[in-house]
Amino acid sequence: MGRMLAIVLLALLSLDAPASPDAAARGRALAQEADTRDSGWRDQRARLEMTLRNRHGDESRRALEVSTLEIAGDGDRSLTVFKSPRDIAGTAFLSYTHALEPDDQWLFLPALKRVKRIASANKSGPFVGSEFAYEDLSSSELPKYEYRWLRDETLDGRLAFVIEERPVYPHSGYTRRVVWLDQQMYQPLQVEFYDRRNSLLKTLTASGYTLHLERYWRPATMLMVNHQTGKRTTLNWLDYRFGNGLTGRDFDQNTLKRSR
Predict the structure, then answer these.
(1) Long-range CB contact pairs, 117-122, < 8 A, 24+
(2) Ramachandran region, residue 16 (left: φ > 0; alpha: ψ -120 to 50; beta: rest)
(3) Residue 101: what pLDDT?
(4) Residue 71: exposed, middle, or buried by beta-carbon count in 10 A (0-12, 13-18, 19+)?
(5) Burial of 186 by CB count in 10 Å (0-12 exposed, 13-18 middle, 19+ buried)?
(6) Under DSSP, is residue 124 helix (H, G, I), strand (E, B) or coil?
(7) What is the DSSP letter of 143?
(8) Is the peptide bond before 85 cis (omega within 30 degrees of 0)?
(9) What is the pLDDT of residue 18?
(10) Residue 4: inside a domain
């Protein structure tokens, strides 16, 4: 067998090879460290500018506000409210991330004046026409994945740990994610998403990180590119605010209908 063919076959076989104990332990330890470093912020608010671009280059823009509440012993809660354009203004999305159980998610559609529950089997679908799936909007709780450290490498001049994450919940739209975790910030620089056929579906790139409260890094821009459709969605994050005094009452289904 030729040397090049052997290398290709080994690479293909390694995609589904079980993680070695050392690689699995290191991958989980890195994910745990990232989670620990980004804990304790309690609540957060931010404004968002979303730009959708199709394969022909046509663009549309939306303005949103996002509120997030940190929940001890469980996943985060988040409320996303569309402010413009007029045809989507008032649409609101509520998400309860869970560590082990399926996430709870609801969408309020003002034109219908009703709250729609997002079923577990539909969370791989696109969020309001964007290249972000509903499951992409959940916080990454440690028990939701199995981890494997792949390598260390430099990405755009920054040292990164490269970690493979395989979802353990059955209704994920992905077989795995490959994350480039910045070695200084312990925040993702890039994430590759592989579909259920294990083909590269999307790549998320996060950039323009700034430090808040002398501890928490947040990106200015997140770009999601769909390699299979040629579409892309850009999120520009503005005006991060922490310590807003939010409580669980700000994240119930009644809040969805009151959001404007």
Answers:
(1) 120/171, 121/171
(2) alpha
(3) 84
(4) middle
(5) middle
(6) coil
(7) G
(8) yes
(9) 53
(10) no
Q: What CATH number has the domain bearing residue 76?
A: 2.50.20.10
In a domain, 243, yes or no: yes
What does the alpha-carbon distance between residue 84 and residue 176 come to, in Å, rounded to a whole number? Answer: 34
Residue 139 lies inside a defined structural domain of this protein: yes
Q: Are strands 59-69 and 200-207 parallel, antiparallel or unpaired?
A: unpaired
Rounded Cα gap, residues 221 and 204, in angstroms: 10
Sequence-separated (6 or more) residues with CB below 8 Å from residue 152:
159, 160, 161, 162, 183
Examine residue 9 and state whether it is found in any structural domain, yes or no.
no
- Quickly list H helices, 18-143: 21-37
| Structure tokens that stand for 1 in this block | 């067998």
Number of domains present in the structure of the chain: 1
- Sole residue written with tokens 């004046």: 113
Residue range of the domain that includes 104: 20-258
Separation between Cα atoms, residue 104 and residue 76, nearest integer Å: 11
Q: What does the alpha-carbon distance between residue 60 and residue 134 come to, in Å, rounded to a whole number?
A: 20
Q: What is the pLDDT of residues 1-56, one digit of tens each?
A: 454 444 333 343 344 445 577 999 999 999 999 999 999 999 999 999 999 999 99
Give dist(CA 21, CA 24) in Å, integer. Answer: 5
Instruction: Dump pLDDT digits (tens) for 120-137.
Output: 777 888 999 999 999 999
Tokens at 201, concatenated = 């579906």
Closest CA to 220 of 237, 242, 205: 237
